[in-house]
Design a protein that fits this description.
single chain, 218 residues, mainly alpha, Cytochrome p450, 14 helices, 0% strand, heme binding, transmembrane, metal-binding, Plant_Cytochrome_P450_Monoox, monooxygenase
């Protein structure tokens, strides 16, 4: 690309990704993330700073490290067997099957319990999956208030604000169900609780940190 656009490209790349990388590490604030991301408590959308660094480090060490992946290997294999033996020899929608398998692996690693399968609770999996699907749709929409704050009432008139609040409420409910499962095996939620059991973690309450981080990872 430097050959195509000239030396200025190298200069700008160095400026953005080396000299001023911390400035560009912060995502712009938006209405969707404020309402559905626990007021920017989700570390993926949080501004760069001590909170972002602390939660990112926690996720990398307690969930994504080689040691943790080895500990959860049995659940990965169990979920693979569940997916292959679910309906026996019959036609299956593979896109949905692989989607449910991926979600099951992630949720079990985070909360210690499966989301689909024989141990799932009623219609909770479908409700949770719909909430996260709606989140992905709404977070990508253009909100007038993000560009022109004083015209935020237009988002309310269009129903986007109310829809975001409904999704945020459902996400809140799903994450509380995961966090309150005391019978689950040792998991990422327990690891977070052990780190932030002093009541505050970079200026935010533990419940917000847990819910925001879990929704990000899922």
């Amino acid at each position: 690309m430097a050959d195509k656009y000239g030396p200025i490209f190298c200069f700008l790349a160095k400026k953005c990704y080396t000299t001023s990388d911390k400035v560009f590490a912060t995502r712009p604030r938006s209405l969707a993330i404020k309402l559905m991301g626990y007021d920017h408590g989700s570390f993926v959308f949080a501004p760069y700073g001590p909170y972002w660094c602390d939660v990112r480090k926690l996720a990398m060490v307690e969930l994504l490290s080689n040691r943790q992946l080895e500990m959860h290997k049995h659940s990965f294999m169990g979920n693979g067997q569940w997916a292959s033996n679910k309906d026996g020899p019959a036609l299956a929608e593979m896109k949905e099957r692989f989607g449910n398998l991926s979600l099951n692996v992630v949720v079990r690693a985070i909360s210690g319990k499966p989301y689909f399968g024989t141990h799932a609770c009623g219609d909770e999996p479908k409700r949770g999956k719909k909430a996260f699907d709606d989140f992905m749709i709404l977070v990508g929409l253009f909100m007038v208030s993000d560009a022109i704050p004083f015209l935020g009432w237009l988002d309310t008139v269009k129903g986007f604000t109310a829809r975001m609040k409904r999704v945020a409420k459902e996400e809140h409910r799903q994450n509380r169900l995961s966090a309150n499962d005391n019978g689950a095996e040792q998991d990422f939620i327990h690891a977070m609780l052990s780190v932030i059991d002093d009541g505050q973690f970079s200026g935010r309450d533990p419940e917000t940190i847990i819910k925001g981080t879990c929704s990000n990872l899922i």
